[in-house]
Every structure is written in C-alpha cells, then in structure tokens.
Amino acid sequence: MKERLVELIYEKSFKYSEEPVFKLVSGRVSNYYVNCKTVTLHPEGMYLIGNIIFEMIRNLPVAGIGGLTLGADPIADAVAYTSYFKGKPLESFVVRKNAKSHGTMQWIEGNLKPGDKVVIVDDVITTGKSTIEAINRAREAGLTIVKVIALVDRQEGGYEAVEKAVADIKADFKVVEAVVTREELMGLYRSRNVGMNK
Q1: Strand partners, 68
Q2: pLDDT (tens digit, 9 = 90+) per residue, 54-70?
Q3: C-alpha 72: how far from its chain's center?
Q4: Domain over 2-191 is classified CATH 3.40.50.2020
C-alpha cells in the first residue's frame, strides 16, 4: 500500500523543477511543490491513506483524529471512515483557521470533549507552522495529543519544529511520523528520469 501511495503522490501531487519556481505559503520559492489535495480527495488515495494511517495508530488509546482545515480534513475523514470498518471507530475533528463567529464561537468542530486523546494530522509539513497551530488549538480546547502524523514531509526543518512542539509528550513510540518523505518522491523522480540531468 505504501509503495502505491508514493506512486500516486508522485503522479498526482509532486512537481519538481531544476530552477526554484514554486512559491510556497511561507513566501519562499522552491524546486519542489507538493499539492496533496489531488491525492487526499482521490478515491484510491483516500483508501490508501485511511488504511495506512489507521494501521499506524490502531493500537493507540485515542478517540479522534484531525488537524487544521483544509489540508487535514480529508485525511482525518479517510482514517475515521476506515476505523469504523476495522472495528475501532475514531472521531474525525476539524481545527478551524478562525474561531466560529457565532453560536459557541469554537475553534474545534467534532464530537470530542476535553480530556480526549487525539492524533493530529497534516497533509504537508514544510515549516511546521500549520501543524503546530493545530497542536496549540487542540490543546487549548483541552484535547490530549498522543501522536502527530504528516502525509508528506518536505524535509526542510518543519518536522523538527513539530517534534519540538510536542517534546513534552512521553511515549515508547515515535510521536511524530511522516508517511512519505520528499526523498522518497525524489527517488521515484530519479528512477523515472534516468539519463536526464538530475
């Protein structure tokens, strides 16, 4: 499953240029661009992501999975959907970018309550900013974070920043994990472009 997911991300989400031409959210320009939504919103992508991430967390004592909208939403939904069929239902939740302007004015949407243990997910980690924002909002809402998973780690320092943000979590397992790394995608790029400059 993992091998197929790497292929799907490479085919649908990954772009590479010898010259840095892709403008990132941070404002920096990069040689790489990964738009995971083309995979997280794809039927096969949802199936693979749901199963792979569920297997990564199935033995953890968690009640829910979610992260900052919009990148995390289809990932959390795919895992929650899969969890039901696997006999260990998990709630999916959404961390808003802005507090709701009416009603309860909350930052978190879903069926979780303070004290519940959760997994934070994100589609891509570059600087780690959106993942850390989700971690902070979830903690402010009283949720206990057990693990953080990124679909793709661009390997540009964000992973380490996220590790620092959850350094207080004591566990006998890896607290921060990435399903796919930029290096794995570049490995596929190189193998499919043998004989070219890169």
Answers
A1: 95
A2: 999 999 999 999 999 99
A3: 6
A4: yes
Contact 53, 77 (CB under 8 A): no
Q: How far, in Å, CA of 127 to CA of 87, rounded? A: 35
- The backbone torsions φ and ψ at residue 35, rounded to the nearest 5 degrees and listed phi first, read -105, 90
CA distance linking residue 14 with residue 36, whole number of Å: 8
The whole-model pTM stands at 0.93
- Per residue in 106-155, pLDDT (tens digit) is 899 999 999 999 999 999 999 999 999 999 999 999 999 999 999 999 99
CB–CB of 115/99 below 8 Å? Answer: no
The DSSP code for 29 is E
- Report domain extents, the chain: 2-191
